[in-house]
Amino acid sequence: MFETLSKSVAVLKGNLGAIWSMRYTSDGQYMMMAEPADFVHVYDVKSGYEKKSTSLVRYLLNFITVGCNCGTSLSSDILAGFLQFRIFPDPNGCLFDSAEREKKKLLIAGKNMSHYAGYVEDEYEMEDVDDDMDDEFRGRDLAGSESDVDEFDYANSKVADTTAAQARRGKDIQGIPWDRLSITREKYRQTRLEQYKNYENILNSGEGSGKDCNITKKGSTYYEFRRNARSVKSTILHFQLRNLVWATSKHDVYLMSHFSVIHWSSISCSKSEVLNVSGHVAPSEKHPGSLLEGFTQTQVSTLAVKDKLLVAGGFQGELICKHLDRPGVSFCSRTTYDENAITNAVDIYDSPSGAVHFTASNNDCGVRDFDMEKFQLSKHFHFPWPVNHTSLSPNGKLLVIVGDNPDGMLVDSQTGKTVRALSGHLDFSFASAWHPDGITFATGNQDKTCRVWDVRNLSKSVAVLKGNLGAIRSIRYTSDGRYMMMAEPADFVHVYDVKSGYEKEQEIDFFGEISGISFSPDTESLFIGVWDRTYGSLLEYGRRRDFSYLDSLI
Fold first, then answer.
1. Is the pTM of this model over 0.70?
2. Which pairs from 400-407 meet CB under 8 Å and 24+ separation?
3. What would the pLDDT profile of 144-165 be if each residue is shown by its tens digit?
């Protein structure tokens, strides 16, 4: 019987590198093999390994591999759905698809979520860059590299950032050594565009939205690359909620990194921990309505920081408020004890009286307004569907409400009564923002579009802007109203010139999931949080100024 072993019956080739892991399903129908990074191939055994599906899974590859190594018995059903849904492992050894999680708007519910967060913490230490991918790069002949700065700064035992000067000399802004890989950046980008799976709640919404989209002129540069800070890792806990990066000045940024809110200074290139929610968090101040017992192991789903106030929202309806100029936590509250309680978004604003307020959008269909001068709930509105994001108009009179419905709402901020429905999107929305003029606002949807609306005529949107890969998860305007920025789930951030009628744009192109985007209040800086096991970082761009008028003085 061993005579047939004189040669293999099939030779299967990867795209990037070595084959590090292989698994068969228990029924023998499929075989899965994993490369060191980015690619997982699933073969149909019955076809003689002639049929396969390949998935580009960048940051999830390590999760899937670990899940397999933990002794998971993969089922055919899981592999059959492999390309349709992102797969997340349960720390106890089972794999779950994110479509099942979406039914309750949780990745992993209850106790399992705490385990998952701990698992991610162990797997992604902030200073730990000694991962499989980098190991493979370092094991090659680095002496032949022409780059000025290696991927890893051995002298200081830390990851090397990329500066604007290095980028001008040709170094990749994320530090990816394309010259040492068997695939070019262009080929990898094309594969990513072809294989990235946009998450939809309504089938084929991304394809149906294309007919109304504006044609934009790309190639503008409104913000120039300054630095890629790889020593600060921005992370995500919920794949649909991406508001976890906030700039309070052109040099100060706050972001989530696992269980910590981190402050990053772009002047000193240093980070410091502002809030840690891995253990017990309780208010150090006493206010009526504050939950004095606090919370334990909060999974932060959303974040907002403005001036000196930080508000973090959690998976179980938690709200944690901290004043950055005071020690300890100022206020803790739980918006609801409903089973479907996740806090989807927080919006901090100044009321007409000058008091600081914030609104919390929740999956229990509620929008709550909190007065942070009195530390108490001031308004509570209820809507027909889970609310994913709200934005208050600059004059404080109108609220944009978007959520688990293709139609959004414009409502009266004092009464919660609907002023007008917003019809045009084809899927659920997760982002909104007002232009500083208070006349136009934008909404972002899983149909891959951002729609711009004019309050003077809400019968249809005035502009429809289309993404490349997937849903529009986050939107921001500059404080002067000149630019609008929108972020896709991964790889692309678009900056539009509002004065051109959104016809001109700058497309910022990189690799990795986007945890959040933010303009600085003075419009001088733009920050992007990138979540990726190997290349997770904070991208910083600076506003481009035209000083050509000074030439006349030379």
1. yes
2. 400/432, 400/434, 400/441, 400/443, 401/361, 401/367, 402/429, 402/430, 402/431, 402/432, 402/443, 402/445, 403/344, 403/361, 403/365, 403/428, 403/429, 404/201, 404/428, 406/202, 406/205, 406/445, 406/447
3. 333 333 344 433 445 689 999 9
